[in-house]
Each structure stands twice: as structure tokens, then as C-alpha cells.
């Protein structure tokens, strides 16, 4: 009998900016455990403005994914998460990065720290947020949302998810 991965908790949010207005909505449940599902759902949100996804997984790590022509731009907040979570391992596979060794205790992000730079989150500021290891992923994503300008919409959506 194949070993089954435990259910993943957290949230998967699509963020869309169109006509200078931000809109946040939840992605379907499989987006939290299957990277391809999250990418497919985001690609389905046709928009002339920015479209990206924010995933917080089990209070452990977050993923920022943004469809771009010819692929997807990705940021995984903790590369070591790939040792325990298939979705994080899938991010590293797409990035063509080997997972860290089991003995490695250091946390580091992997991927494109400039994934949201054109929206007002410079690479160095995103690095500071990722380095805040005392914060939970939802708190880190909240900081990103505030900095870019969709904090209220993001908070409102998270409040409905936690109700």
C-alpha cells in the first residue's frame, strides 16, 4: 500500500490587479498540494494586469508563483521544505535546483526574489521578509500584501477563510 502524504493545511490565494484595483480570491484546494494545479488555476485567470499566487503551507513555508510568458516565476521561502513536502520539491524541480541535504539546518529561499519587483516589492525587501524566520508564512505574506498595496483585500479574504 503506497504511503499517503498527510493533508496539507494553509491557504492558496490568487491575486489579480486590473484597472489599478486589487482582487484576492482563493484557489481550489488541490492548488495547495499540487504545483501544477496552482499554476493551471492562475493561468486561467486571464487579466491584462498582474496575476500571481501566494501559498502558505502548514505554517512552515510559503510559495510565490507568477505565470510569465513561457513559464512561471517561483519563490520558495525555505528550500528545506522540499524534504517534507511534494509541492516544495516540485518548485525545486521546476527551478532545476537540488534539494538540500537532510543534515543541513540552515534556512534559505530558492527562486526569484525579484518575482514581485515590478509591483513594488524590491528583491532586497522580499529577502528581509523571507529572513524573518520568527514569523509564520501567513504573517510574511501579509507583510508582502501590505507593501504592495493589497493588504486590506488580503486580510479580508484570510478572515473569511479562518471564520
How many beta-strand segments? 6
Main sheet record: 6 strands, antiparallel
Q: Helix and strand string, N-terminal first?
A: EEHEEEHEHHH
The largest sheet has its strands arranged as 2-1-3-4-5-6
Shape: globular
Radius of gyration: 15 Å
What share of residues are in beta strands? 15-25%
The helical percent reads: 25-40%
What average pLDDT do the residues reach?
90
Structure description:
The protein contains five helices and six strands, in the order ββαβββαβααα. It has a six-stranded antiparallel beta sheet, sandwiched between helices. The chain has helices at residues 35-43, 86-95, 123-130, 137-148, 151-162, and strands at 10-18, 21-26, 51-57, 61-68, 71-76, 110-111.
Write the layout of secondary structure elements.
Layout: E1 10-18, E2 21-26, H1 35-43, E3 51-57, E4 61-68, E5 71-76, H2 86-95, E6 110-111, H3 123-130, H4 137-148, H5 151-162
Helix pairs in contact: 4-5
Overview features:
23% strand, alpha+beta, 6-stranded antiparallel β-sheet, 163 residues
Could you give a quick summary of the protein structure above?
With 163 residues, the protein is of the alpha+beta class. Helices cover 31% and strands 23% of the residues. Helix 4 (137-148) runs antiparallel to helix 5.
Amino acid at each position: 500500500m503506497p504511503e499517503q502524504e498527510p493533508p496539507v493545511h494553509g491557504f492558496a490565494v490568487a491575486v489579480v490587479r486590473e484597472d489599478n484595483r486589487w482582487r484576492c480570491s482563493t484557489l481550489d484546494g488541490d492548488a495547495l498540494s499540487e504545483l501544477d494545479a496552482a499554476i493551471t488555476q492562475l493561468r486561467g485567470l486571464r487579466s491584462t494586469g498582474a496575476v500571481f499566487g501566494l501559498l502558505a503551507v502548514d505554517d512552515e513555508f510559503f510559495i510565490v508563483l507568477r505565470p510569465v510568458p513561457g513559464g512561471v516565476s517561483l519563490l520558495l521561502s525555505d528550500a528545506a521544505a522540499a524534504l517534507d513536502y511534494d509541492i516544495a520539491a516540485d518548485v525545486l524541480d521546476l527551478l532545476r535546483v537540488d534539494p538540500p541535504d537532510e543534515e543541513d539546518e540552515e534556512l534559505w529561499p530558492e527562486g526569484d526574489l525579484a518575482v514581485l519587483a515590478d509591483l513594488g516589492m524590491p528583491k532586497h525587501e522580499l529577502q528581509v521578509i523571507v529572513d524573518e524566520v520568527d514569523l509564520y508564512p501567513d504573517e510574511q505574506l501579509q507583510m508582502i500584501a501590505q507593501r504592495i498595496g493589497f493588504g486590506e483585500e488580503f486580510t479580508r479574504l484570510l478572515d473569511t477563510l479562518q471564520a
